[in-house]
Specification:
heterodimer, A: 325 residues, alpha+beta, Multidrug efflux transporter AcrB transmembrane fold, Alpha-Beta Plaits, 2 domains, 11 helices, 4 strands, B: 535 residues, Hypothetical Protein, Haloacid Dehalogenase-like Hydrolase, Chain: A, domain 2, Gyrase A, domain 2, six-stranded antiparallel beta sheet, four-stranded antiparallel beta sheet, 15 helices, 19 strands
Chain lengths: 325, 535
């Protein structure tokens, strides 16, 4: 079976449209983040989350009313399936003086619920993150991500060319930004689990990009007369089947996680779903396009980018001759 | 026709069996009650708290408290000594947690003062002199660091002891973070957060009691010696192992019910040397403690003094003379033993208070729900992928499924072997591993199709497919390995969990996609005169 039989689509013709589209999405995301702030989960912002399971059905509004006396902006929402009677309560980080007990917010929630006589309930989970930890996790998460992207940049620059590396890294940042934009608009918070999913996405996107770059490198040897854009186009077309199949199967696996994985995995699998789509898209339209633009810019300055590859192939041919004789 | 094919098949089967035994069988054995050796059972892949349920706490040791205590005791020690030597000083007062000031030292006794000060606190504090007989004592930087470290170590050991007393299986008590003053406590399966927190935070109970009789090897022996019953004003207390010299096992002591002194009266203890330059332990009481301790020890010279921590006798040295504020325990101790005992004595009064920075508890219901949902979703996802591969690649799809499944088996085996825990972010690593595993196979298969389309023979097409794609796979995997390495190096708990899974998943994937998959192809192609490939 073969879905894509020798396609010859001019992907790069659309590169400016694609970049404009990406720019619009990212800009909307940035505007949203700057006006409303990044939706940080309590892992990073600090705060308290209590998940309760009631025996009888309870409305969110009733719980919200019961918690009316508590200070700060509270979030009360349904958790899991509606038949489970599970409610999540989130409190912002309380401004506590040094040494004050961390759990007072959670305790106040339980007291208020007990007094409101909703019947029997069970505490499914409690998460309380103090300010020190939140900042620590934020800082370390950012360092770790930047360091790993830096490592990838160096590797691709060594194995391919700098312009390719820049293309791959821009695509990676693109994927993170687009995914965060979608998370913001669909009301998901950045938790540690979501960050893990974002990291998985960067890994996936880079993997995708390298596959095409590898093909470009291979084709550059046989298509010395063609422009880089033609070579890239051909490479993208040659690997199109693989790109779609891999994206499709991974998407299927994550879709199962999204549908059946339960509440805990929701934000996580949603991130992966968005990331797989944007990761595949960015490989074709962003990574390759940036690599070409970079080569052209550098080509104007010094006309030595293409010959560098030509020289490489030449020297290989020369080697072959030596061996043959 | 293919070189070393039999050898390759053997390696594949061998790897599969070994990793299955380590990674998968123990889980099945536990679930279905199959027989299993202790070694494998101990290595069983464990679930993280987010999946299993339990309590996760991060505490901070307020190390400043320990510095303040050290400064206070040192200034007190100096003041006492000055009084004993009749040197007047108008004031000896701590001014901060690491500094104290002596004022109004008489001009004519200046040299003497300096000598005494150096003697008493010279190893801990730097002395600076000001005008009018004023001296400032500032804690030495290395002492500062050491005191902080000690207070964390001590808190760590105290918490460990308390957690063990809780009877939790496989608890984790470990240093946390880069600042060096945080402690991570994980208690799998514990649901009562508040009880756990109370127990962790409460200071250990240290009591010093006079030993009336003992040690005895058993409780029965103790009772026999006393007509079958413990006298009403006494109690029988068990000791930790090897307290009886020469005879291993638990020792029993008959001690007075009322403690001579408790840990609250003990100010500090520190390692020192005895007259023969052997390691010994020096300790110091506060004023009230010194008074009672003086009376009790004066009346009981020659008897043993039981040092009881949380109801167990830790040590029972013989009282050699009356002891008031400053005492010393001597014996044939190694330096290590001395350090341990010092920590022990200190744990009666935690020098530094603890605050909670982070607290998470996952109820067993939610954890179980998460596992059930996670497993169901993973199985569903794998099934979908497998189905697609079979439809799209026909017989070759079996090959891909085989290599992805083997990849997961190897990954589970690795995780179990290195003692990693399975968490939600770990599942992310698993999914990325599946994704890359499928990808490697797709890359190879698509290439083989291309080569076939270029009307090459079946065997050449397979060989070319694998050879050409090899470097692509190496490139993608090395780039991801680099990323995983950095994530592990710089990341925190959950990110590290992800990085670990990804790292080993990538390694095993190179093996399964490049080596195993090719072996399977070659096995099929070597059998008969195959001219067509179902791909």
């Amino acid at each position: 079976m073969k879905f894509f039989h020798a396609t010859n689509i001019d992907f790069l013709r659309w590169r400016w449209h694609a970049m404009a589209l990406s720019a619009v999405v990212i800009l909307t995301g940035l505007v949203a983040v700057f006006t409303q702030g990044l939706p940080l989960g309590i892992d990073f912002s600090g705060g308290t989350i209590v998940v309760l399971k009631f025996e009888k059905p309870v409305t969110e509004q009733a719980v919200r009313d019961a918690l009316g006396g508590l200070p700060g902006e509270k979030v009360v929402q349904q958790y899991g399936q509606s038949g489970d009677h599970e409610i999540l309560v989130r409190l912002p980080e309380l401004v506590t003086e040094q040494g004050a007990s961390l759990e007072q917010g959670a305790r106040a929630v339980l007291q208020a619920i007990e007094q409101a006589s909703f019947g029997k309930f069970e505490v499914l989970s409690t998460e309380i993150v103090g300010p020190v930890i939140g900042k620590d996790l934020q800082r370390k998460g950012i360092y770790a991500t930047l360091a790993s992207i830096g490592g990838i940049l160096v590797y691709i620059a060594l194995r391919f060319r700098l312009s390719f590396a820049v293309g791959a890294v821009v695509a990676t940042f693109h994927d993170i930004l687009v995914t965060v934009t979608f998370l913001t608009f669909f009301g998901y918070e950045l938790s540690l689990n979501v960050v893990a999913a974002l990291l998985a996405i960067t890994g996936y996107s880079v993997n995708d990009t390298i596959v095409i770059f590898d093909r470009v490198r291979e084709n550059l040897r046989s298509m010395r007369r063609d422009t880089l854009a033609d070579v890239v186009n051909k490479s993208v077309n040659q690997t199109l089947g693989r790109t779609i199949i891999t994206a499709g199967t991974t998407f299927l696996a994550v879709l199962a996680l999204f549908l059946f994985g339960g509440e805990v995995l929701h934000g996580f699998s949603f991130t992966m779903l968005v990331g797989i789509i944007t990761g595949t898209y960015s490989t074709v339209f962003i990574a390759a396009a940036i690599a070409i633009i970079m080569s052209q810019v550098r080509g104007h300055g010094r006309a030595r980018v293409e010959p560098a590859v030509a020289a490489e192939t030449k020297s290989k041919k020369a080697n072959r001759k030596v061996r043959a004789s | 026709m293919y070189k070393n094919l039999r050898w390759k098949i053997l390696v594949t089967i061998g790897v599969m069996v070994v990793f299955y035994a380590v990674g998968v069988y123990p889980i099945q054995a536990q679930r279905y009650g199959l027989p299993i050796g202790d070694l494998l059972s101990a290595k069983r892949l464990k679930l993280g708290l987010d999946l299993q349920g339990g309590v996760h706490l991060v505490l901070r040791v307020q190390t400043d408290d320990a510095l303040r205590l050290e400064t206070e005791t040192s200034s007190e020690r100096l003041r006492e000594e000055l009084r004993n030597q009749n040197i007047t000083a108008s004031a000896v007062n701590p001014t901060s947690s690491t500094e104290f000031v002596v004022e109004g030292v008489a001009q004519d006794r200046d040299a003497e003062f300096r000598r005494i000060a150096d003697d008493q606190v010279g190893t801990l504090f730097d002395r600076a002199s000001g005008a009018g007989g004023r001296y400032t004592f500032k804690m030495k930087p290395n002492v500062d660091v050491r005191t902080r470290q000690d207070s964390v170590t001590q808190a760590l050991q105290t918490i460990e002891r308390r957690v063990n007393a809780l009877g939790v299986s496989e608890p984790i008590v470990a240093p946390h973070g880069t600042a060096g003053d945080q402690i991570l406590v994980q208690l799998p399966g514990v649901t009562e957060v508040n009880r756990a927190k109370e127990i962790i935070r409460s200071t250990a109970l240290l009591e010093l009691k006079i030993v009336e009789d003992g040690p005895f090897p058993t409780r029965e022996a103790l009772l026999q010696n006393h007509g079958g019953a413990v006298p009403s004003d006494m109690e029988a207390v068990s000791g930790i192992d090897d307290t009886v010299e020469g005879a291993p096992g638990t020792a029993y002591y008959l001690v007075r019910k009322i403690a001579a002194v408790t840990g609250r009266d003990l100010r500090t203890s520190r390692p020192t040397l005895d007259e023969n330059n052997r390691p010994a332990i020096a300790f110091m009481f506060n004023r009230a403690g010194a008074r009672t301790f003086g009376t009790v020890t004066g009346a009981n010279v020659g008897r043993r003094l039981a040092i009881i921590l949380d109801g167990r006798v830790q040590l029972a040295p013989v009282i050699e003379s009356r002891i008031t504020d400053n005492g010393r325990i001597t014996g044939s101790f190694t330096q290590q033993e001395v350090n341990d005992i010092v920590l022990l004595l200190k744990s009666g009064a935690l020098p530094a208070s603890l605050t909670y920075l982070e607290e998470r508890s996952v109820g067993p219901t939610l954890g179980a729900d998460s596992i059930r949902a996670g497993v169901r979703a993973s199985v569903a996802g794998l099934a979908l992928v497998a189905l697609f591969m079979l439809v799209y690649y026909k017989a070759a799809g079996i090959n891909a499924i085989l290599s992805v499944v083997l990849n997961l088996v190897i990954l589970l085996g690795f995780m179990a072997y290195i003692g990693a825990v399975m968490t939600l972010p770990g599942i992310a690593g698993f999914i990325l591993t599946i994704g890359m595993g499928v990808d490697s196979n797709v890359l190879i298969f698509e290439r083989i199709k291309e080569e076939l389309a270029a009307s090459k023979g079946v065997r050449q097409a397979v060989a070319a497919g694998f050879d050409r794609v090899l470097w692509t796979i190496v490139d993608t995997h090395v780039a991801s390995l680099i990323a995983a390495g950095f994530l592990f190096q710089f990341g925190t708990g959950p990110i590290r969990g992800f990085a670990t899974t990804l790292f080993f998943g990538l390694l095993s994937n190179v093996f399964t996609a490049v080596f195993v998959s090719r072996t399977v192809f070659e096995t099929i192609l070597s059998r008969r005169t195959v001219t067509n490939l179902s791909i």
